[in-house]
Amino acid sequence: MKLFDTIAEMGHEQLVICNDRSAGYRGIIAIHSTTLGPALGGTRFWQYASDDEAIVDALRLARGMTYKNAVAGLNLGGGKSVIIGNNRTVDREMIFRAHGRFVESLGGRYITAEDVGTSTADMDFVHMETKNVSGLAGRSGDPSPVTAHGVFRSIQASARERWGSDDLSTRTVSVQGCGHVGYYLAKELHEAGAKLIVTDIDQERVKQVAGEFGAKSVSTEEIYGVQADIFAPCALGAIINDQTIPQLKVEIVAGAANNVLLDAERHGVALEQRNILYAPDYVANAGGVINVYSELAGWDSVRAFRKADEIYDTILKVYKIAKDDGVPTYVAADRLAEQRIGAVGSMVRTWPQWPNK
């Protein structure tokens, strides 16, 4: 890998390679942008096939966080860290305390939180070494209700864009995934009068959602081909692909899962060609990062939900850019994020804050 060429091409500010042999810790911290504020992004613990794979993943995820935080209207930049290793290891304290020390060494430029393979307990170990960590136990709480509310608002905005009304009482929504976010989303959709078709690999979750919200259940393979108005993927990523797109019998795709499009360019265009309206995932599911920001900013849950409400207007802005510029919605979302980053970045820095003498 030509490291500096890769960083320059992707627009990153900083890449930190971290090692503490005594703790069994090998980590990578990628900071994409601090234009809007300190770079926020979780810590992923994963057994990567190679060091290059780990670096590329950190860089890709950090850039994604810049766009997610920007389009959510938060005063945060984008960053991400990965720890290379077996995330099922029991001996975690020294690994995460070592990680905390490297986070602390960045002087507040990067704030971490939990992610794939990590937990609030791990973040408590990080917190022993740095204050630059969020998602701690007993603080902002379960982000699932806020994430689900943002997705619900994105579905309402998409319905308004497609049918001229955000009333969901005559609509059918197929929900893939009945975990924490999927459950709360199904609850809000049910309260709005929508009919639900649901699936999950865990049949107990399906039974709970079906029992509480009168949902119809189908197998995990069937969910793509059911007749519905809206498809809400709330489980794995990369599920909009060459195999699933021809099966879809919906007019809108809007859900909580990350990286829904297997290949953003190819499959984003494929949805457009089938006249399926796509709510870009990192806009729709921004309630999660809003919940994390609420902890940093000292907001209560009411204010966090109010901020998640704004996803409705943000999604409509994305659709307007897509229409005005003649581009797919996934491109329009990036342009909206870039507009905010550019606007803040071009503001004049006034004395005495800069230059720092």
Describe what this molecule looks like in 3D.
- The protein is α/β, with parallel strands linked by helices and 357 residues long.
- It folds into 2 domains: 3-68 and 76-127, Leucine Dehydrogenase, chain A, domain 1 (Rossmann fold, 3-Layer(aba) Sandwich), CATH 3.40.50; 144-332, Rossmann fold (3-Layer(aba) Sandwich).
- Helix content is 44%, strand content 15%.
- The protein contains 13 helices and 12 strands.
- Strands 1, 2, 3, 4, 5 and 6 form a 6-stranded mixed beta sheet that branches.
- Helix 7 links the parallel strand 8 (195-199) and strand 9 (216-217).
- Helix 12 crosses helix 13 (329-345).
- The longest helix is centred in the N-terminal third of the chain and has 21 residues, at 51-71.
- It is globular, with a radius of gyration of 20 Å.
- The mean pLDDT is 94.
Outline:
44% of the residues lie in helices and 15% in strands.
Largest sheet: 6 strands, mixed
- Measure the end-to-end span: 38 Å
Report the radius of gyration as a whole number of Å.
20 Å
- How many DSSP H or I helices? 13
How are the SSEs ordered, and which strands pair?
Layout: H1 3-10, E1 14-20, E2 25-33, E3 39-40, E4 43-46, H2 51-71, E5 77-84, H3 93-104, E6 110-111, H4 120-127, H5 144-163, E7 172-176, H6 180-191, E8 195-199, H7 203-213, E9 216-217, E10 230-233, E11 252-253, H8 264-273, E12 277-278, H9 281-284, H10 287-297, H11 301-309, H12 311-325, H13 329-345
Parallel strand pairs: 3-5, 3-6, 4-5, 7-8, 7-10, 8-9, 10-11, 11-12
Antiparallel strand pairs: 1-2, 2-5
